[in-house]
Write a structure and sequence with these properties.
heterodimer, A: 282 residues, alpha/beta, Rossmann fold, five-stranded parallel sheet, two-stranded antiparallel ribbon, 10 helices, 43% helix, globular, B: 315 residues, seven-stranded mixed sheet, five-stranded mixed sheet, 14 strands
Chain lengths: 282, 315
């Protein structure tokens, strides 16, 4: 059971990350809003509870690794990294601009805290599996986290990687799937049905748990269970609401690849502040 | 060892075993072509460092990238028709854009693949690989050079593409000739024309050069074993010192070694020309490599005749 003050702390962090995400996207003028807001709670739990990491020493050899395979939602990664202290928050406003370290999609080597390059969907899991395999070969204790989108499961390479992950029993790898049911062209089940995703993954030899991706306690419990499961890798299907926290963006696939204008940004930030006060006064 | 007729894939297999003995960071990955890419010896001797990924070339490249992030030196092997053809986008984003220390080894390149037919005769891999930033592209000519190239690839920090072949040739290079990435070597002295070639097809170029001597033409033969980075100084020298450059490759004329040489020559002010011998914008077919080389004008006789014709036009 997460203590009330711990929950409040994570709620504050998530609200701050959501606001930064919206502000940086509005400033950038292009990018992906819905998925970034939908995964904010998972990112908050990861970087502020679960990870072994040192923001002031990003290449610390003992760290856990986070690979964001669905690179298009990287504003939430950038906002989280700056919230955690990897770099100054002021730099967030340079997203997608010339000479910025904050590339439109994550690039290994451009910014401290970025562990892998991604953008074209389906490539992160193979890399995460390779890293997990290499760490296991050397008996290193680091854990690898791979974050993917649901539509990304439509890429064949992902299933090649699942087979390898099961074969080599990569118990140092935890996979989060953002199950928000939308993709750029509509609902996942209309574009290319994924269900029953959980059964498919189990048939590929993976341990699967399914959680509410906005419930900190469920996120943390599922990740800790994955850590203690020694037989192989766990996939945590996170049921999320795309655009979470901003009523006019929630569950609307139109916001997948769109950014707010100035007045929408103001409204969104007001709403996030009001909601935070509401839930914390309950 | 190198007096015998052997292939560049054999050189890779031997080189990898030598390297693995001295460097524990070396790991091998294969997409179920372990015997024919000559990774089997490594897999047998170092099972704990060998990863069988199954028939999954995209995943193999990604896993290799992850292993590089864990500090390993991964060698990932398949056929050139599958790697890079099936995995080019993964190589681009997961390997070269991150500048990771991944070594891609692709066998069965070119018409030399023979009876398997056009599906398996990769004629485009050099072109596909040399266009990627950070990528080093090596096409060794014979067993010895392939063996040395494995060591050079491991010593080089960054992505490397090593193309090998099942062509069995007499030794083309010497056991004691040094191999250095980015440096070509001169196999035959001559000041009339210059052949620039890479890979086992050089055997045909040398045979054509011998025939040219009989009609009084002395050809210089350059082994351009590294196609990227290219040995520019040698191309410049050949342009000024000889009547023309003829490139010969068991690849498409478009995009490969010939194109790379033309890109250099186009920026040098001379009236000399570069002629490209290679597969002329068409697919191959089944047949013995010798029959194919004849039909597609990559045999010694065709190279000789072509050169003769070209020289008649300039003089």
């Amino acid at each position: 059971m997460l203590a009330p003050h711990a929950t409040h702390h994570l709620q504050n962090i998530a609200a701050s990350i959501r606001k930064d995400t919206i502000l940086m996207l509005q400033k950038a003028g292009s990018g992906h809003t819905a998925g970034a807001l939908g995964m904010t709670d998972v990112f908050s739990a990861l970087y502020f509870v679960l990870l072994n990491h040192r923001p002031d020493e990003p290449n610390w050899p003992g760290r856990d690794y986070v690979f964001l395979s669905s690179g298009h939602i990287n504003p939430v990664l950038y906002a989280t990294l700056s919230e955690a202290g990897y770099f100054d928050k002021q730099e967030l406003s340079t997203l997608r601009q010339i000479n910025s370290r904050l590339q439109g999609h994550p690039h290994l080597g451009s910014l401290p805290g970025i562990e892998s390059t991604s953008g074209p969907l389906g490539q992160g899991l193979s890399q995460a599996a390779g890293l997990a395999l290499g760490l296991k070969m050397d008996g290193e204790p680091n854990r690898v986290y791979c974050l993917m989108s649901d539509a990304e499961q439509q890429e064949g390479q992902v299933w090649e990687a699942y087979m390898l992950i099961a074969k080599y029993r990569l118990n140092n790898l935890t996979i989060f799937i953002d199950r928000n049911n939308i993709q750029i062209g509509g609902k996942t089940e209309d574009v290319m049905p994924l269900e029953s995703l959980s059964a498919k993954l189990k048939n590929f030899g993976l341990r699967v748990s399914e959680i509410d991706g906005h419930n900190f306690e469920e996120i943390i419990d599922a990740a800790k269970e994955a850590q203690s499961f020694k037989e192989g890798a766990t996939v945590i299907i996170c049921n999320t609401t795309s655009g979470k926290g901003v009523s006019f963006m929630e569950n609307k696939f139109e916001w997948h690849g769109k950014v707010p204008d100035e007045s929408q940004t103001r409204k969104a930030i007001e709403e996030i502040d009001i909601k935070l006060r509401e839930i914390q006064s309950e | 060892m190198s007096d015998q007729k052997q292939s560049t894939r054999d050189g890779f297999g031997v080189g990898l075993l030598e390297l693995a003995a001295s460097n524990p960071k070396v790991v091998g990955l294969c997409a179920d072509l372990t015997e024919s890419t000559r990774m089997q010896g490594f897999a047998d001797k170092y099972p704990e460092r060998f990863i069988q990924v199954g028939v999954a070339e995209q995943n193999m490249v990604g896993v290799a990238a992850g292993l590089a992030l864990a500090g390993k030196i991964p060698f990932a092997a398949s056929y050139a028709a599958f790697q890079p053809a099936n995995s080019w986008g993964v190589i681009r984003t997961s390997v070269t854009y991150s500048n990771l220390n991944v070594k891609l080894v692709s066998s069965h390149a070119g018409l030399a693949t023979g009876p398997d037919g056009a599906t398996h005769q990769s004629l485009e891999d050099v072109s596909l690989m040399r266009v990627l930033p950070k990528m080093t592209v090596i096409v060794p000519a014979d067993f010895e050079e392939a063996r040395k190239a494995v060591h050079a690839a491991a010593a080089h920090k960054g992505p490397v593409y090593l193309q090998v072949s099942r062509s069995i040739t007499d030794p083309i290079t010497k056991v004691d000739s040094p191999f250095q990435i980015g440096k070509s070597s001169r196999l035959l002295e001559g000041d009339d024309i210059t052949f620039i070639s890479s890979g086992p097809i050089i055997a045909n170029v040398l045979a054509a050069a011998s025939k040219l001597v009989e009609i009084g033409i002395r050809a210089r033969v350059i082994n351009m074993a590294t196609i990227k980075p290219l040995d520019v100084a040698v191309i410049r020298e050949a342009l000024f010192q000889t009547k023309m450059i003829i490139t010969v490759e068991d690849q498409q004329r478009i995009g490969g070694l010939g194109s790379a040489v033309c890109e250099v020559a186009a920026c040098i002010a001379t009236e000399k020309t570069v002629h490209r011998v290679g597969v002329d914008d068409t697919f191959g077919e089944s047949g013995s490599p010798d029959d194919l080389f004849k039909k597609y004008h990559l045999d010694a006789e065709s190279i000789f005749t072509k050169t003769h014709e070209l020289l008649a036009k300039v003089s």
